[in-house]
Amino acid sequence: MILLLFINKFVLQNYEFFFAYRHPSAFFSYLRTMKLNEPIHDVLKRYWGYNSFRSVQEEAIRSITQDRDTLVLMPTGGGKSLVYQVPAMASDGLCIVVTPLIALMKDQVDNLRAKGIQAVAVHSGLSPRQIDILLDNCVYGTVKFLYVAPERLSTEVFRLRVQRMNISLIAVDEAHCISQWGYDFRPSYLRIAEIRKLIPDVPLLALTASATPFVTDDIMKHLLFAEKNVIRADFARKNLIYSVRKTEDKDAVIFRLLNGVQGSGIIYVRTREGAEKLAELLRKNGFSAEFYHGGLPNAERTIRQEEWSSGRTRVMVATNAFGMGIDKADVRFVAHYTMPDSIEQYYQEAGRAGRDGHRSYALLLVAPDDLRRITTTIESLYPPISEIKSIYEKICSYLQVAIGDGQFASFVFNIHDFCAREHIYIDKVRNALKILSMNGYMTLTEEFENPARLMFTVRRDDLYKIRIEREDLNHFITTLLRMYNGVFTEFRAISEMEIATVSGYTVERVKELLKQLWRMHIIKYVPSNISPMIIFDEERLPAANIYIASETYGTRKDMAEERLEQMGLYAENEKVCRNRIISKYFGEKNSEDCGNCDICIEKRRR
Ligand code: ADP
Ligand code: MG
Asked: Which residues is 145 bridged to in the sheet?
């Protein structure tokens, strides 16, 4: 009797356990709820030395440790990394982190290693052998964090290994990159869904600093969330004083700012020439200033950034190329000489001021005609379908690919040279390429070291015949087959150096032989290189046969116009607290007046 009562009580207490999880997979996912070996506060203290969590960190960690797919929105510098690092350290297994930029990936890995935590990064800058070893360590070793670039996810090597790893969670950093309606869409992010399908029981944590409610929904959809679950931090910045100045004489306002505010800052402008001119003007007027844009060589950029970070240069006049990886805490002002394309972008850039919590200024300059001018620019950035097709043709001609040729071929693509030659604005070409990529024609890869790649295009028995007929190639082909099993189905990264070592040929000879096999249509071969590349997903088609799905293109442009319109409203606004406008834009419903911005101050005066 007592036993019966006990069982009864147990069933009632665990009602959820018995009845809510009847579906078998849901039942197992209940059992799978992340097992924590150590309280999360202890982990925070032990590895990071912090006593408490910030803002929504703890709430987000609780959510992911209950095995719920979770999207976390926190401003830059808010502490998103700890939201995946702490639960991963508190539990068994490995955490996969998808992140788009190699430089940031390396920083994260170094930081973790400095704490004695095993972390590795897999990106295209490594040789295939190095990647093999790293991934093996993830299967058999004690690696806790595997950082991976999104374009590595769909490689066969990765797909095979990932299923054998003991994975605690997948973290997707800069998750807004998966939304084509967002301001920074990267097609390679769409591959994350494929990996999720291979390891369906692993919960996913998506992190971003900027997503409107519309984009958050899109992120959760593309990352295959089991249910919607967004955790949003407060986006208001209490120490940042937002203001907008309408003026015909922007230079005068800038001089007043530089004379009135102590300390260093950034002035954002739209174009490279604009950056160079304004820096020059400031120097002529006795201010310490330098310019920064994407046209400078890498080394020069690094030097300029360091000069500014250390305080030797006071003002950086920059295009939006200046941003990633700035960790200067005492930036006292960020001025926008021209209006950014969206509130996301404005918030990110202005938010680089005042990281140390001290009073800082975010000033936006607007000339009467600005909005109309920028609308025209946006218009020109999102070309009509006919122009996308024409850019497609121009790229094909530039790369000397004839109609019917080029499937799976890759080419080094110097986008600056192309744009200069064809007189097309670079962002327009980028946008056209994103649309072409979404429709499966060609893809522009990010700028970094690409290893050589190889794939056989003939069947095994045909290859056997060739080996008999061409005795001079037999040794080489046999070596390739021995080294790279499985190159019959898809591209594999190879190393010409390794092939040289194993085959006994010189590296030059290896490259020649690979090209020869390529010309004989036996293999597809992409030499290694350090630069962005264009990869043809399809052979070159006549422009008339290029089909652009309207949903991949019309709405993209509409969304860009919508973002700019919101930015315009922010600039025109004379009534609502600026912090509130921004918070509302990011989906916060109950924000308060900041009391500091130009609007709040004006209200008080009245
Ligand atoms: P995000 O990715 O959101 O831009 P990071 O994860 O890089 O931000 O964190 C920014 C800084 O905040 C880091 O130096 C980090 O160590 C620090 N930080 C994060 N969480 C806490 C915390 N709970 N207490 C103190 N410092 C923290
Ligand atoms: Mg981050």
From this structure: 95, 119
Question: Which amino acid is present at 371?
Answer: L
pLDDT, tens digit (0-9, with 9 covering 90-100), for 146-205: 999 887 887 788 999 999 999 999 999 999 999 987 777 887 788 899 999 999 999 999
* Structure token pair of residue 487: 């190159």
pLDDT single digits (tens) 319-334: 988 987 787 999 999 9
Q: Distance between CA atoms of 440 and 538, rounded to whole angstroms?
A: 7
Q: Is 81 in the pocket of ligand 1 (CB under 6 A)?
A: yes
Which residues line ion ligand 2, judged by CB < 5 Å? 80
Count of Cβ atoms closer than 10 Å to residue 465 Cβ: 11
Q: Are 180 and 553 in contact (CB under 8 A)?
A: no
| 3-state DSSP assignment of residue 159 | helix
Length of the chain: 606
What is the rounded distance in angstroms from the CA atom of residue 227 to the CA atom of residue 225? 5
Angle at 292 between CA 248 and CA 443, to 5 degrees: 105
Which of the four pLDDT bands, split at 50, 70 and 90, describes residue 447?
A: low
77 lines ligand 1 (CB under 6 A): yes
According to DSSP, the β-strands at 230-232 and 331-336 are unpaired
